[in-house]
Amino acid sequence: MRFTNISQLSNKNYDVIIVGLGAVGAAALYQFSKRGVSVLGIDQFDPPHNFGSSHGETRITRLAVGEGKDYVALAMRSHQIWKEIESLSCKKLYFQTGGILMDSGISPWEKHGTKSFLDRTIAFAKEFGIAHNVINAEDTITRFPQIRLESSGKTYAEEATGYLLPELCIATQLELALGLGADVLVNTKVLGLENIENGTKLLLEDTSLLAKKVVLTAGGWIKDFLPKEESRKFKICRQVLHWLEIESLHDLWKNSPVFMWGIGAQPEDFIYGFPSLDGRSVKMATESFLETDHPDLINREVGEQEKGEFMKNKVAGRFQGLSGRILKSSVCFYTVTEDGRFVIRPLQNHPAVLMVSACSGHGFKHSAALGEFLAQEVCAEVKTVELEID
Ligand SMILES: Cc1cc2nc3c(=O)[nH]c(=O)nc-3n(C[C@H](O)[C@H](O)[C@H](O)COP(=O)(O)OP(=O)(O)OC[C@H]3O[C@@H](n4cnc5c(N)ncnc54)[C@H](O)[C@@H]3O)c2cc1C
Predict the structure, then answer these.
(1) Domain ranges of the chain
(2) Mean of the pLDDT values across residues 198-216?
(3) Which of 188, 364, 365 to mutate to test the pocket of ligand 1 (most atoms within 8 A of CB)?
């Protein structure tokens, strides 16, 4: 059942309560409900919403993920689960457009904590037998004339790459979970966690709930549950998405692949984008690693100067078929760790609480399989994909 009022839940005890119903929490809720576990998902907002890390129309998914060899199997498993969810819900979540990962070749660039990102991607593709091509700049421009890759550049092209619709992925998994007997409580903030015999007490504004196990998928708000020195390891980094107007004569962006492009030596020397979904604009963004203390303090406005800098520093001279106007922008945030890896472990001093966070800007594509991993871990099942628990 979907609740907005805690009093409707009168005295229910759950085997599992999931705190946070973004990408990872919604996936976990679906996976627990599939197993017949008595499970409740709670969110401080009404998901899918625009305040966390899982909104903004599209997310790239790719298989040979240079972020880590162990994540390749996770991405592959997620693709299988997205297909299963599509067939159960009759909704299209994943669009296989093909994808290109480009390196300007000016200086080596790192990404999500990983050096030599392009070379690692190619190595993983070879090792896992993932269909791909490596092409030079001339061939890249011939195949994708909307992109003006420098002559020193190199491109990894992967067929299985595409984009997911994040809001629909979350909504669909919540709906499926509700249909399978899960409960969902929205607009309710968990204020604290207390160890009790055989489980955890979740403190809410006027009352509390009990669960044998808690899965904490609070995204950037994980900071609220950690001691100060631990919390500092999770950097909240504001990100801005822009929708750029297409020049009316150009049809180049309609069937474009998703793209990622390393344009210099620094992690911020990067731009990525999508095909046009509406025929009028293409979504593009860079990455920023400037830290904000807490998700609640993020500036949600995007100023004209900021838009101008994005156009000048990241877009100008790199693309064809754009008018130069930004039609709209949206703010989101990453939760980043030093090495860019996910953190999955029991919450400090809370043995019955499993925390999952810091998807460091690359977690959406993995969320379906992460949800499955969490359910398998808590239900003591054999794992489909092995991941380290710290
Ligand atoms: C701009 C941008 C672009 C990205 N692009 C990609 C991409 O192309 N491909 C990719 O794979 N990944 C991408 N990512 C990363 C990916 O989107 C994130 O890793 C992922 O969505 C994080 O999901 P989450 O569930 O951890 O966090 P969230 O989606 O933020 O969910 C956390 C939830 O917990 C709730 N919550 C927190 N505290 C409490 C509390 N105390 N009580 C109740 N509820 C609480 C919040 O309200 C929220 O709903 C991108 C991220 C951003 C920001």
Answers:
(1) 2-54+166-232+340-378, 99-159+235-336
(2) 94
(3) 364
